Amino acid sequence: MEEAKESAGSTAPAERHAGWNELFFDLVVVAGAGQLARLLHDGPQPADLALYTVVYLAFWTTWAGFAVYGDIAASETRVRTLLIAMFGMAVMAASVHTVQTSHSIAFVVAYVALRRQAGQVWRRGSIVVDWPLAQFGAGAVPWLVSLFVDTPLRYWLWALGIALDIVTLLVSTRDRTLRRAGERAARRRDGRPPPGPAHGPVAEPPRLGESRIDAAHMGERLGLYVIIVLGEGVIQIIDAASEHDSWDGPLAATGLGAFGLLAAICTLSLLYGTNGIPHLRKGVLAPRLAMLLHAVMTGFLVALATALGSAVAHVDDVLPKGQHQLLCGAMAGYFAAGLVAALPLADRSDRVWLLGWALPCVAMSVALALLGSALPAWATIWILVALVCWQIAYDPGAPGAGSPGQRWRRFRRSAPRTA
C-alpha cells in the first residue's frame, strides 16, 4: 500500500523553485538597486527623475531578459550565460553613478551587448511569445546610435529606445508575435540563393515553435526581485541611522515608521498579490503586461528607498521639499500600480467601488506631497503606513458578491493569498 502511494505521488509534477544559479544571478540586482538609488539622492530635479527612469528601465529590462531565459530553459540553463550577463549588469551598475559623464559609454556598450546576448540564447525557431523583446530588439538601436552623439541628444535616444520597448510589450500579442516571426522567417528564406551546383544545398528554415514561461516560477522570481528592492530600503535606513550620534525619540519614530512601511509594502505585495504586485490575481494580465507593471512598480520602490534614507537622515529638521515629494510620489505610484492591477478583476458595477477604494490612497499621497512639506518626516511616514495598512485590512470580497456598502464594512478574515 505504501509503495502504491509513493508511486502515485511520484507522478505528480514537482513544484519548481528558483535555482541556486538564478539566486546568485539576482545578487547583481542588490548592487544595481543601490547604485540606481544614488541618482535620486540630490534633489531630485525633473531631469534627475527622467534620467533615473530611463536608466532603471534599461537595467530592469536586461535583468528580465535573462530571468525569462532561465525560467524557460530550466535545467538546460547555461551557467556561463548567466555569469556573462551578471558581469555585464555589474558593469552597468558600476557605471550608473557617473552615467552622465565619464562612464556613459561603458553603460551603453554593456546594455547593447547584453540585449544582443539575451536574443541569441534561444534556439532557432523558438518564439518567446510571453516576452517579445527576446526576438524584437529594435529598442537597443537608439542606444547604439547614442554612442556617436553628444548630450542632450544622447539622453533623448536612450528614452526613445525605452519607449520602443514599452510599445513592443504593450502591442505584441501572441498572434502578432508569431505572425511577425513567420514573416521574418519567410523573408530570410526568400533572400537565400537557390540550391544548385553553384551554391550547394540549402537547409530548410527552422520550424517555428512557441516558448512559454512557467508562470509560478516566474512569479517567484519577480517576488524575489521585490524583496531585494525592499532590502535596499532597509540598507538606506540603517546607513542613515548610523550617522546619528544621538538616538532620540524623533529618530526612533522615523526609523520605526520607515521599517514598518517597508514591512507593510512587503505584506501587501507578496501576500495579497501576485508577482510582487499588490492586488494582482493569477492569470488576469498577460505575462508581458504583468512584467511591465512590475518594472514600473519596482522603480517606484527603489525611489522610495532613497526617500526613506533621507527621511531618517533629517529627523532633526524638516525633510527637504524634493525628498518629501519623492517619498509621497513614490507611494502614489505604488498605489496606482495596485489600482491598475485590480481593475481587470471587477465588472462594470464593481469598478466604481474599486476606484473608491484605491483612488483615496493615490489622492492622499499626492495631496501629502503637495501640501504636507511642513510636516516632520516621522508624521509623513506614519500617514503612509496607515494607508498601506488600510489596504491590507480591507477585504474587497469576490466580484459581484454583495453591495459596495456591505463590502465597505467587511474586513479580511480569510488566509492571505500567496503570490
Instruction: Profile the largest sheet.
Output: 2 strands, parallel
Please state how the strands of the largest beta sheet are arranged side by side: 1-2
Strand content: under 5%
What are the secondary-structure elements, in order, as H or E? HHHHHHEHHHEHHEEHHHHH
Number of helices: 16
Please mark out the parts with pLDDT under 50 across 5 or more consecutive residues, or reply none.
1-12, 194-200, 396-419
| Total count of strands | 4
Could you say which overall geometry the principal axes of the C-alpha atoms support? globular
Could you tell me the mean pLDDT? 82
Alpha-beta classification: mainly alpha
> What's the alpha carbon Rg, rounded to whole Å?
24 Å
Helix content: 55-70%
Structure description:
By secondary structure, this protein is mostly helical. Helices cover 66% and strands 2% of the residues. The protein contains 16 helices and four strands. It has a two-stranded parallel sheet with strand order 1-2. The protein is globular. The N terminus and C terminus are likely disordered.
Key phrases:
single chain, 419 residues, mainly alpha, two-stranded parallel sheet, two-stranded antiparallel ribbon, 16 helices, 4 strands, disordered N terminus, disordered C terminus, Low_temperature_requirement_A, Low temperature requirement protein A, membrane
